[in-house]
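>> received
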Amino acid sequence: MSVSDQNKPAEKNALWETIVVLFQAFLLAAVIRTVLLQPFTIPSGSMMPTLLVGDYLLVNKFAYGYSRYSLPAYNPGWFTGRIMVPGLSGTPTRGDVIVFRLPSDPSIDYIKRVIGLPGDRIQVRDSVLYINDKPVPRVAEGTFSSDTSDTAGVGVQHSMESYRDVPIYRETLDSGASYQTLDLGLSEGDNTPVFNVPEKHYFMMGDNRDNSSDSRFSVKYVPEENLVGRASFIIFSLGNDTPFFQVWKWPTNLRYDRFFKGIR
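>> returned
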């Protein structure tokens, strides 16, 4: 037997071990993505100033339990409702930032803030949010300027140039959640009818109140089954509309101050 023949079994074993390791890594990544944490990218400015275009974040998949929409890809609907994890899963709290599947097209992920819980009455009057007929405290808190464009407007489109020195207002909910919102001026979402949130549904709104497609418009009420998870923290952020693959532009466009920032 030649030396080359002796080496063949060893080479085959090494190849097989490599395949096994790669398969295990793939399986682990799939489990983490499905069960624990799933990465998401912010493509629009509907959640400014809380979330910016170019933010890369992780979503807690077990925060509200699991539904058929917890799988990253399409699934045939093996079960309905939600499976809760004892001691870890709960129900959404008013003010949580949540990723959910769009009710009209479950293949699309949206991210908004929970404003209305089942049974709540929600309305906006002259830009002031009312929950169960009580106005949410709203305090002016400086201005905001964006380093990216926003392509997901509703009603009147606001271009990149519009996001210069935009008024910021801080809202504080009865749950204790406190966050900033933007007010770009008069828009169709500043005065709404009363929305009565049905059982097992949630009312979602973007923090960029005048440029967000949310439950005031086509999104409507979001079934609890459509909830994917709670946005936990930002792990990476690129400004100035920088594509992820343009690594050579990272040094001047990374938003270092947003790395590992918690989402509230």
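>> The two ends are 68 Å apart (CA to CA).
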